[in-house]
Amino acid sequence: MMTLTQISKRAFIENSRDSALRSAIGTALHANSTPFRNSGLNRLKLIFRNLSLAAALGLLAGCVSPSYDKGAATSAALTSAAGAVSRTSASVNAVLGALNALTFKSEGDLRRQYDDLVAATRRLAQSNENLAAKAMALREAAAAHSESWSNQLDTLQSPELRQRGSERMNEIVSRLRAMDASYAQVKNALRPFMADVRDIQTYLGADLTAGGLASLKDIVSKTKVKALPLRDSLKQLRSSLTSLGAALSPVLPAAEKK
Description:
Blueprint: H1 14-33, H2 39-63, H3 68-104, H4 110-154, H5 159-206, H6 210-215, H7 217-247
């Protein structure tokens, strides 16, 4: 899995695309100025050649995108990851709620409350998978943005602007690395939490009785306490992702009405 520290610089492609456009245009102009002896057949060839060149030029022009798109894509990836963290946080709370209801507020048919716990745990697993996918997409977007930014800085003639740009880029990259570390902390905390919950499910699946519930109340209480750092980590990660996503967005927030 690629991390920000593994970003490699590659050749900046916009200049090569411009060269390709100029070369294609020059070829077309030369072809149009060349006389043909067999005018009928050669004119037909010329028409097809120009149509092919026009299609190629359209494709080349369509591939070129503004450099700020990389920053906007990273902002969107940050916002999307923040949403995934929110859903994971809600899923953790749902599991804790279902676990508490089954263990300490059990009533009637225990199978209903047990099934609620199983469903909540399944949703948490799905949220965790979605969060992992969003984290990967964020790494890829951040890597592309960093590479594009670095290549743009290399083209600057002003040493002062190049220095300021480098400082800004290093600041953003540092914040992205910090968030990557925060996500790793969340992932490492989620793994034992989910293992504990699944163990409790397995235990109760074999002994879903009043006695079975009474025998693991202390285990459930410990699991709830161990989940507190996880909940705090999720909250902090969501806040950091949202903040940096807004900072990298090319769209300014609407001004407050007075």
